[in-house]
From TrEMBL:
GO terms for biological process: glycine biosynthetic process, by transamination of glyoxylate. It comes from the Archaea. CDD domains: AGAT_like. It comes from Halorussus limi. This is Alanine--glyoxylate aminotransferase family protein. Residues 1-25 are annotated as: Disordered.
Amino acid sequence: MVEKPDVGELTPPDRTLMGPGPSEVHPRVLRAMSTPLVGHLDPSFIEIMNEVQDLLRYTFRTDNQWTIPVSGTGSAAMEAAIGNVVEPGDTMLVPTNGYFGGRMEEMATRAGGEVVHVDAPWGEPLDPADVAAAMDEHQPDVFGFVHAETSTGVLQPQVPELTDVAHDHDAIVIADTVTSLGGVELKVDEWGIDVAYSGPQKCLSCPPGAAPLTLNDRAMDKVLSREEDARSWYLDLSLLEGYWGDDRSYHHTAPITNVYALREALRLVAEEGIEDRWERHRENAGALKAGVEAMGLEMNAPDDYWLPSLNAVRVPDGVTDTDVTSYLLDQYDLEIATGLGDLEGDIFRIGCMGYSSRAETVSYLMAALGDALSEQGADVDVEAGLAATARKLGEQ
């Protein structure tokens, strides 16, 4: 006989989230999640769907009709993008300069595509000349790149140059904007991006569950003219068109509460103004960056492609990364992360995203990090770091 489990009330710790995601959720978003449920085809919910799509278009900086929240995490939006655009027999060009280029490769392979590479070291952006050479060699149908590489702290510059090269070769461009949407400059239409996907739990400060995705007409025409159905029924955009398009016909039960949350998170973006939001992230992350450098630490990415929303900081000599992250969690209820893949053990990944990108959280992080590193015997100047951060924050 199965015994009844004795489970108490839910009491998770109250963490300060400064890792690569999730970020802290804005109180207004939490309140929105407590509002009453309606049906996923209720007229009131259909109006909410319309509002979410309009707000997503504003945040992506696009007029794309096909702009939706995918029911699932950011990885669901990623798989919806790649699994629908890449058909069996297609060639997809993907980067090798970070962990999430590798995930693009895996998803494209599962979709039946042939994957080829444009190479760059981990911690460096793609060079448009290298992309052009790879395009000439492989003539891919699809080109994917990561705008903000969460594993390395690198922001891809020269995006219009990349998309121009791809379009000269008649390739569809898919951009991973998981750690850039709502946090750093992103202009889908102006930069010539055909497909962009993201996650709500990063710079939008929203719980995961409804993930942003946008496709232009060229990309959606390719999706709707496939010879074979997409391999995922759940993420088949030709079927989802019936729910998120003009018909609003049943496909699945949307995560209603998560859509409420995303709507409120996007309202906050619009109220702040997208350009002002980009600037807030630059300023607060700039104060963090100034502090860690004054402390004697080194950023993983040079200034030319530093990613404000995800700061990759080199682990100093004589220090074990996990000792520092465990100390911060135990002593300060503060979360940062260690490295992935080729950078495992070499960097700390410190987020400065959305609601976590505030002067008080940056100051708290710097004080806690200085203590943690000193406790581990690192050669750091904590006072200089705190003073540099305070100066930068005072200039805002």
